[in-house]
Amino acid sequence: xxxxxxxxxxxxxxxxxxxxPISSVDLMERSAKAxxxxxxxxxxxxxxxxxxxxxxNNGGDALAMSRLLAEKGYVVDVFLFNIHNHLSEECAKNxxxxxxxxxxxxxxxxxxxxxxPQLTEKTLVVDGLFGSGLKEPLSGGFASLVSYINQSxxxxxxxDIPSGLMTESNRPQDNPAVVxxxxxxxxxxxxxxxxxxxxxxxxxxxxxxxxxxxxYFIDTIPATYDTVDPSxxxxxxxxxxDFAHKGSMGNALLIAGSRGMAGAAILASKAxxxxxxxxxxxxxxxCNLGIMQMAVPEAVCLVDRESYYSEAIDTDGFQAVGxxxxxxxxxxxxxxLMSQLQQTSCPIVLDADALxxxxxxxxxxxxxxxxxxxxxxxxxxxxxxxxxxCSDYERLMLARDMARDLCAYIILKGHYxxxxxxxxxxxxxxxxxxxxxxxxxxxxxxxxxxALLARxxxxxxxxxxxxxxxxxxxxIAAERTGKESLIASDIIDSLPEAFKNLEK
Length: 504
What we know:
The protein is an alpha/beta fold. The protein has helices spanning 6-19, 24-42, 57-71, 89-101, 140-151, 200-203, 215-220, 230-236, 262-274, 289-295, 331-343, 352-360, 378-385, 392-406, 441-455, 459-481, 488-503; strands at 2-3, 49-53, 76-81, 106-110, 124-128, 155-159, 183-187, 205-209, 225-227, 251-255, 279-285, 300-304, 320-323, 348-350, 373-374, 409-412, 418-420, 426-428.
């Protein structure tokens, strides 16, 4: 599913109106019906409803919804804010219709002073102040109204997007005036801001309502942002030939582990084996040899004479190399890493301490080989860029620019992991859950992607299939263990079922 910008959403609305064809006010009625049905499914007719409507089309949606709810027997009090004495055409039409039909319990049009209604824990507030067209933070009276809503005990539903939240970029503010919704009823598709962790505090449950906008426009408009398409993932899964042997299924090398960090090497190696690689070789310090051979007997072990990664090795016999899990931060390891990168010609995945070493040697980033894959979590990425206190949007834009400048593939990990592609495109993953926020989960992802590369997947598809599989296995594991008890080994144990789901 494409993720459209606020400007593209307005173009989509306009195109639908012109080519369906349908009038703008009738399209608003369609939206209002979807919003009304969603509210009726969640709240009983006895729920007192207070609607705050703004002067634009978001307010128009709210007014049309108020009329429809009143027709269904709900008691609805509407406050329409018209402080500049200017309403959008559709908003004005829906105000007039609400007045003429006399269905609302009370309609108050605010032009100057505002006496706020009492909001109790039984009240449902519908936020229809501002939608996806907002460009500046709220201030003055609207900021005060948002504060009043947020401090009340009422349940809050926001139409399309919580008022005060911008569709894309939301720079950190000390006291942001943004409605904190319990439910956001977003129209047609999720907005980009809904994929960011720092915006989740405002969104509550996000429910996407299909209002039947032009499919042709959506299919043909170019979009920078997208979500993983499960059907695409299934179509890209490589089939295992009946006459395959381990030599034809790829030889993967994992450079992982240091003293006290054998677990990272074990998890990455197990995940690599479970993800279809014909052979997995782990380069790890001699102190980890015994536990590695016991924990992952299927893997071949190469031993570093030191207690850390100290020397690059020949990679001519491997189809993919994953570097970083549990590697430590010795300076000798950093030098070995750069030497390894310079002499390795097969696809490379960099994770964990490999990324931290790059962060400690900022200039080295520019020396990375083309098409390298990096899988940082936000703090690791911040170390690489030397930037701190970025918003999630700013961090994503930095990752996009870095992927484009370095001709790299960067998976910025999170609830919605984002793959930034060399061509500037960004794809969000939609599988996974909060139970996967546990030590070793990233090591598992490294093993999965390295295996897929060794199997013959392109770098792009190894990343897409890898992060989708990783999240899907995590979802399967969470169903079995619950989120609180989920550990990285559970993700590995669920990989066979995840693969089976994609083979159907």
